[in-house]
Amino acid sequence: MFVASDTVNEYKSEDEAIHVIERRCKLDIDAPRLLKKKNSLNRRERTLHIEAYNETFSNRVIINEHCSYTVHPDNEDWTCFEQSASLDIKSFFGFESTVEKIAMKQYTSNIKKGKEIIEYYLKQMEEEGITFVPRWTPPVACKSESSTCHPRRPVSPAINIPESATKEGLSSKEILNTSSSPSEPTAGTPDDKLDADYIKRYLGDLTPMQESCLIRLRQWLQETHKGKIPKDEHILRFLRARDFNIDKAREILCQSLTWRKQHQVDYILDTWNPPQVLQDFYAGGWHHHDKDGRPLYVLRLGQMDTKGLVRALGEEALLRYVLSINEEGLRRCEENTKVFGRPISSWTCLVDLEGLNMRHLWRPGVKALLRIIEVVEANYPETLGRLLILRAPRVFPVLWTLVSPFIDDNTRKKFLIYAGNDYQGPGGLLDYIDKEIIPDFLGGECMCEVPEGGLVPKSLYRTAEELENEDIKLWTETIYQSASVFKGAPHEVLIQIVDASSVITWDFDVCKGDIVFNIFHSKRAPQPPKKDSLGAHSITSPGGNNVQLIDKVWQLGRDYSMVESPLICKEGESVQGSHVTRWPGFYILQWKFHSMPACATTNLPRVDDVLASLQVSSHKCKVMYYTEVIGSEDFRGSMTSLESSHSGFSQLSAATTSSSQSHSSSMISR
Fold first, then answer.
1. Where is the composition biased (Polar residues) (predicted)?
2. Which residue, among 102, 105, 85, has the nearest Cα to 180 in the 3D structure?
3. What is the mean pLDDT of the segment spanning 553-564?
4. Per-residue b/e over 198-209, b at no fewer than 16 CB within 10 Å?
5. Any idea what the Cα angle at residue 24 is, between residues 22 and 28, rounded to 5°?
6. More reliable by pLDDT, 170 or 287
7. CB contact at 8 A, 654 and 223
8. Could you tell me the CA-to-CA distances from 335 to 163, 244, 345 in Å, in that order?
9. Do 103 and 31 form a contact (C-beta atoms < 8 A)?
């Protein structure tokens, strides 16, 4: 967790009784990552006070923590420890409840980890023979009734701090004096060079060129992306997926980060509970690890009723469940890296096809499978270490012909396919999995807790209308809204302002195409919004709407006025900004088509291109947006309060540009 710190201020009294250090610390956590910490040690009073507060987003989130170590009033050989913390979330882009949950979870785990760290080092000191640390005495302590002067007590022997502890970011003073900086293996390293031990422990063998690519891509993200920076292991996966071509890796990584933000994938394990149908009938689950230490996922595809699951849940629920499996896989890789003491960045998947037949080739089920493969390939590259396909039946070549074009060449090389009972012979399962953990349904002795699947009762099936509504509900289960923008059909949002000097804030990503962003003001309300059915554009888009508010007979300057200069936003950019309103009335935020959308290049065919290529318009843009109105008294720091954190990423430029006026601010990052 603790990445680095800089000493801001330090004070020592002449008799060395009082020692105060102020540090600016950098943490690798989901919560605000820059904080200031003040340690005040008073050897004369035998007290240690530690104060910490955040710098990152300090105008939106206020975090204070105080720890104190004092002498117990009843026994001076005992130490009292008190710890208190407060969290005040003023505003956080609509993620207030999510941030609160993360903070509580993080704080609880920190307290537990702090106790472990103290106990660990106390035990180590005992093993080194240090069972007593003499109390501080003044340099010259003379008693008035006696001329005898007591010499200064000797300093306790030096303590050998393990190298692993220093790599985790704890200084020797912090190890002895505080538990306020719980430590996990560091996820950050110096900007100019990676530590050799860090590479060996967490990343694996890297050539100087590969190390350089990782550092350059990480620095680019730190300069342009104000959101959560991916860990080195995750950045490295995208580099490996593109053979360390930094431009190609940056392109797919930025697209993935935008996708993760849109669907709040970082929080899926904490905020989403799979439906009971999935828990009962999805025949897959985690099962120990393989011989290389990779987490092992077992999928009994032949026993799974794919048609029943799609009919009962729809595509979106299945996709979200697969995403949660992948997120859990990333978490297990980190855990196994700690357990085995070597980098483990991928998992092994064992797929049992016993029972696979023609019903598994049901077209909507295959379509769902292809879409899932496409999403996983784009956002979780190089996470599959090995795929063991067992008991492949005669129908398997048909399924493989449909699926294989959507799987990357590097991934296909990791597939091992066994027909019948071939997996029991030489070169079979025993080469990759210890005998003790081979599942019982494959002839092993280990009881596997993976659900057996079976047919989903038809009573659980949903109608097409119900599934469509459920898909939309899942798609929009985010504070962000998705909207489609067409040539000649902008998307517009109406905001009514009662009190002048209110602040309209916005945060949007341009997911596809180039758009022009405008803000208008009108004294009269527009007519009820006209929702484009999208029929004219031959598009069906779950969660992507198109609303037009400005009547075609309205004239600019007479019926409504422009309060902001138009802002051109390119595909992949993310924009945050604000406007302080001068007048009450009706404000209209407009996203308007600008030019032909850029065509994304990829080595793999897209599912939509294969299954629905005729449905996609070449004159379509897509934006994901969030708006909020804040009272001026709550908008601290006026235009700069948003700490404009552009998390959009265009591989073309690392520059950040801004357009600001006296009453507004808007920033873009590429």
1. 174-186
2. 85
3. 90
4. bbebbbeebeee
5. 140
6. 287
7. yes
8. 20, 26, 10
9. yes
Instruction: Supply the pLDDT for residue 226.
Output: 62
> Which stretch of DSSP H or E encloses residue 415?
strand 415-419
- CA–CA separation, 15 vs 43, rounded Å? 10
| Cross-strand pairs, 35 | 25, 54
Amino acid letter at 627? T
8 A C-beta contact, residue 618 and residue 536: no
| Residue for token pair 């081979």 | 438
Residues 6+ apart with CB under 8 A from 58: 32
Q: Residue 642 has which token pair?
A: 């948003």
Structure tokens at 616: 């996609």
Which run of H or of E encompasses 198? helix 196-198
- Residue 127, token pair as written in the block: 């093993």
Contact, 479 vs 99, CB < 8 A?
no
Q: Is residue 511 within 8 Å of residue 623, measured between CB atoms?
A: yes
Residue type, 427: G
Strands 347-352 and 384-392: parallel
Residues 6+ apart with CB under 8 A from 510: 569, 570, 571, 572, 573, 574, 575, 621, 622, 623, 648
DSSP 8-state class, residue 368: H
499: helix, strand or coil: coil
Residue 478 has pLDDT above 90, yes or no: no
Phi-psi region of 501 (alpha: psi -120 to 50; beta: other; left: phi over 0): left
| Banded pLDDT at 404 (limits 50, 70, 90) | confident
Q: Sign of torsion, CA 267 270 271 276?
A: positive
Task: Provide the pLDDT for residue 595.
Answer: 66
**Pairing between β-strand 384-392 and β-strand 415-419 as defined by DSSP bridges:** parallel
Query: How is residue 284 written in tokens?
Result: 């897959």
Which single residue is written with the structure tokens 């920076």?
229
The model's confidence at residue 470, banded by pLDDT at 50, 70 and 90, is low
Structure-token pair, residue 121: 């080092």
| Structure tokens, 344 | 């483990």
Closest residue by Cα to residue 448 from 436, 466, 460, 456: 436
The SS3 call for residue 621 is strand
Task: Report the pLDDT value the prediction gives residue 94, as an integer from 0 to 100.
Answer: 58
Tokens of 265: 């994938």
Is the pLDDT confidence value at 47 over 60? yes
Closest C-alpha among 81, 86, 76 to residue 53: 86
- Mean predicted confidence (pLDDT) in 615-635: 70
In this prediction, residue 325 carries a pLDDT of: 94
Largest CA distance in the chain: 103
Over its C-alpha atoms, the chain yields an Rg (Å, rounded) of: 30
pLDDT of residue 83: 84
Contacts of 105 (CB under 8 A, 6+ apart): 270
Say if residue 479's pLDDT is above 70.
no
User: With DSSP H G I counted as helix, E B as strand and the rest as coil, what are the percentages for the chain, rounded to 5?
Assistant: 35, 30, 40
Instruction: Give the distance from CA 432 to its chain's centroid.
Output: 31
Contacts of 429 (CB under 8 A, 6+ apart): 388, 390, 423, 438, 442
